[in-house]
Design brief:
With about 300 residues, this protein is an alpha/beta fold. About 40% of the residues lie in helices and about 15% in strands.
């Protein structure tokens, strides 16, 4: 370079320097060769990792939709493969059938207790087979009542032991009721046996109801008199109670009892529930066995405690 500078004149030397300068600038601006798409990135150390690792930005945060406490969940549309829910049917009307005067006839009593229908049984306290049959009734889960004998109007009826009389003092009435409850095992309720005279006396019926209430019994008014004060007195004391709607066997013929069973079911359909009363004799057993299931198929027969209020 020094040799060339000695030989060239000054102007030529200036032009040569300028050309070299321009040539160097063009090479500096020349872009690097393009990298093939299949060519892997080559690097070493931590700096290379930072440059070649893709950073994925986090997904945007969506705050939960506030839901009011105890608010119902929004209804979901049924899936195509799910069957639609079947609408619920109305419940059947309720019927209770009480077999009164239990305890005098062992054979008939046991046959009635063996029927599968959920009948209720009211026992005479001093009948000879009351303890035995009440035990059998308990084993089958039946409602058990004490059938409290009360004085009737007509003198032709034989009075049961410890029958409640209108001439009894308050202490005598309470004492009789307490003893009759004590000798009838497993009972949770009571009803009146006969008693058309006694049950019309509200003051004396109140003594009976107070004694039952003290021992948490319920009461079923057999309603042997249209003027009976049993149900009204029990309701005034807030004692759980109900009344009989139909006697099933005033006519002790099986066909007549079957008609009464049909009538009892119809009555339950009209008013939602009904209570019928029958007695332990062969015609009742025959009717319940032969036509009872058909007559009562459209109702639900329940223990009478279900119908007290």
């Amino acid at each position: 370079m020094r040799l060339l500078a000695h030989r060239l004149p000054g102007r030529s030397l200036l032009l040569l320097a300028l050309g070299l300068f321009v040539l160097a600038g063009c090479r500096a601006e020349e872009p690097p060769p393009a990298k093939s798409a299949d060519q892997p990135t080559i690097g070493t150390g931590a700096a290379s990792l930072v440059e070649t690792t893709a950073v994925v930005p986090p997904e945007p945060f969506a705050p939960p939709i506030p839901v009011e406490e105890n608010s119902p969940a929004p209804p979901s549309a049924p899936r195509q493969d799910e069957p639609l829910a079947t609408p619920q049917k109305h419940p059947r009307p309720l019927v209770a059938i009480i077999i009164d005067d239990m305890g005098n006839n062992r054979s008939l009593g046991r046959q009635l207790l063996q029927l599968e229908t959920q009948f209720s049984f009211s026992f005479l306290p001093y009948a000879p087979f009351t303890p035995e049959l009440a035990q059998a009734a308990r084993q089958t889960g039946r409602d058990i009542l004490v059938h409290l004998p009360m004085e009737p109007k007509e003198k032709k009826w034989r009075l049961e032991p410890e029958a409640l009389l209108v001439t009894d003092s308050p202490d005598q009435i309470r004492g009789k009721v307490e003893r009759m409850l004590a000798v009838t095992p497993y009972a949770t309720g009571a009803s009146n046996h006969m008693g058309s005279r006694f049950s019309e006396d509200s003051a004396r019926m109140r003594l009976v109801m107070e004694t039952l209430q003290a021992r948490s019994y319920f009461f079923i008014d057999s309603f042997t008199s249209a003027a009976s004060q049993g149900l009204a007195t029990a309701r005034r004391l807030h004692l759980p109670s109900a009344r009989r709607h139909l006697f099933l066997d005033n006519d002790q013929e099986a066909t007549a009892i079957c008609r009464q069973l049909d009538l009892l079911a119809s009555l339950a359909h009209r008013q939602g529930q009904a209570i019928g009363i029958g007695h332990p004799h062969q015609a009742m057993l025959t009717a319940l066995t032969q036509c009872g299931q058909d007559a009562l198929q459209a109702v639900e027969v329940v223990g009478v405690h279900r119908l007290v209020q």
